[in-house]
Structure formats: structure tokens, C-alpha cells
Amino acid sequence: MSEYDLVIRNGTVATAADIVSCDVAIKDGVVATLGKDLAGGTREIDATGRLVLPGGIDSHCHIEQRSSAGVVCADDFYSATVAAAFGGTTTVIPFAAQHRGQSLRQVVEEYHEAAGPKDVLVCAAGAMPGDLHKLWRTRDPKGYHVEYGYSCMGYEIAGGLGVKLAAPEREVYVMVGDGSYLMLSSEIVTSIQEGLKLTIVLVDNRGYNSIGSLSRSLGLDGFGTLYRYRRNGSLGVDSEESEDYLPVDLAANAESLGAKVIRATTIDEVRA
Ligand SMILES: Cc1ncc(C[n+]2csc(CCOP(=O)(O)OP(=O)(O)O)c2C)c(N)n1
Ligand SMILES: [Mg+2]
To answer: How far is the CA of 214 from the centre of ligand 2 (A)?
Structure first.
């Protein structure tokens, strides 16, 4: 195994004290040593004839800054820091504008929040939109994409792909029930084809549970909301005992479309 993760060889290295020609070795994300003919790295860069400089620090920038009139800079923390890194700036110190009535702590907390993750949650039909409405805490106005207008089953994965196309810099999490998944999951193939990463959380309760519970809330029994074989000409009502379930395996289906599948049956497995 190589001693270092990265060795940059033969560059002209500018340190705080000197300008020397040497190698720079990096281990676990930090500069481990400078010197001549250092041991091998897992990755090596030949910097002969080039300058090797520390990352720049931009101490004067305006990122996602809100003016007193409520206008916000177009560059958010993601786009600004990606642009900075491409230009060799690895640290930014943005302004945090304090407006009338705001405490300093409040302002700093707001900017820290703006610099946090910008994940998007996508969902549409079944029991989940109601549960998410009550339980999900979104951190960003564009972080919650749930289709409440038509409760359109099948929207989730295709919709998630659209979200990822519109905002490729954001992590997209699609929450989809088994019924919705059955209706439309083919865009998994498109997402792989286009290299657009989606994290799809398929919540499989083996049937149209929200519809069953809707029936029960009206004093009726659920009908046809479980994946069961038809017997004696009838699907039977949901409360009827049955061991006669269809051998549906949606995780295997997703895998067959090219998805990387992790199966979880307990909360601890979901967290892991
Ligand atoms: C296109 C479409 N057809 C029918 C419905 C009615 N409907 C709403 S939720 C649901 C069942 C959804 O099943 P699943 O995705 O497994 O979610 P669960 O109810 O189990 O949470 C149905 C049939 C709908 N919302 N959209
Ligand atoms: Mg279901």
C-alpha cells in the first residue's frame, strides 16, 4: 500500500517561509510532509515546471447575501464555492448582512443554514404526502417537492428526474410507495443513462394502504388493496385472512433496471 494518498512531484512550492523545488505529500486530507524523492502516493501528479501554491482565501465575497430590500445574490453557497474551487480558492469568508432588528447571532445562524445541504425531497401519492406534511422539516424553499394537487401516482421517480435535471447540484431523494412504483419506475433507466443520481426510498407496505385505511375510516372494509391472488372469483376484503400473496419483489425489479439496491426492514437498517 502507498504511504501517502497523493504526492505532487517536482513542483516549485511556495510556502509561508520560502520558495523551494520539492515534492508535497498528502495523507488523510492534510499536507503530511514536503521534501525530495518522497515515498509513493496512491495518486501522483507531476508538477515539473509548475507552481504549487496553497489554496486561496477570499475574505471579501457576497454569497446568498440578502439586501435590506430582500434581494438575494444569484450565487448561492453551492455555485459560489464550486466556482471558487475551480479558480483555486479553497476558503471563502462571505459577508453576513445584518439588517435592522436582527441580532448578530441570528444573522450568523441564518447564513450557516444557507450554507448547509440543499437536498430535495420528492413525493406525490399514497400515505406519505400526508405524513411528510406533518413530519418533514425542510431547510430550503426548494427542498420540498411534493405533488399535492392531483396526488398523481407514478409522478415520483419521473418527477425526481426532472428535479435533478433542473438542479443537478442538489441531492434528490424520491420517496415512493410500492403502488406508485408499480405505476411508473422506468425512469430509473433514464436516470442511469443520463448519469443523474437519484436516491429512491421505496416504502413497500405491500399494497395500496392509504386507500384501505380510507375505506376503513368510512366504516367499510378495504377491497383489493393488497397484492393477493384472486380466489373463488374474488379478491376478497382486506380483513380476510390470507397467505395467498403475490410474489412481488420490487427491490429485485429496481435492481434489474440497474439500480444499486439496499434492502432495509427495520429502522436501524434504514439509518445504517
Ligand atoms: C394515477 C392515480 N391513480 C389512482 C390514485 C388513487 N390512489 C391514491 S394513493 C393510492 C395507493 C398508493 O399506493 P402506494 O404507492 O403503495 O402508497 P400507500 O397507499 O401504500 O402509502 C391510490 C390508488 C392516484 N392518486 N393516482
Ligand atoms: Mg403501499
So the answer is: 13
Task: Look at residue 215 and tell me whether its pLDDT is greater than 90.
Answer: yes
* Whether residue 225 has its Cβ less than 6 Å from ligand 1: no
Q: How far is the CA of 170 from the centre of ligand 2 (A)?
A: 27
199 neighbors 121 (Cβ within 8 angstroms): no
Domain boundaries, the chain: 4-52, 56-114, 120-206+248-271
The CATH number assigned to the domain with range 120-206+248-271 reads: 3.40.50.970
For 4-52, which CATH class? mainly beta
Ligand 1: atom nearest CA of 150 is: 25
Q: What is the pTM of this model?
A: 0.71
Contacts of 264 (CB under 8 A, 6+ apart): 270, 272
Q: Of 87, 83, 156, give the one whose Cα is nearest residue 126.
A: 156
Establish whether residue 185 lines the binding site of ligand 1, counting it when its CB lies within 6 angstroms of any ligand atom: no
Does position 139 have pLDDT exceeding 90, yes or no? no
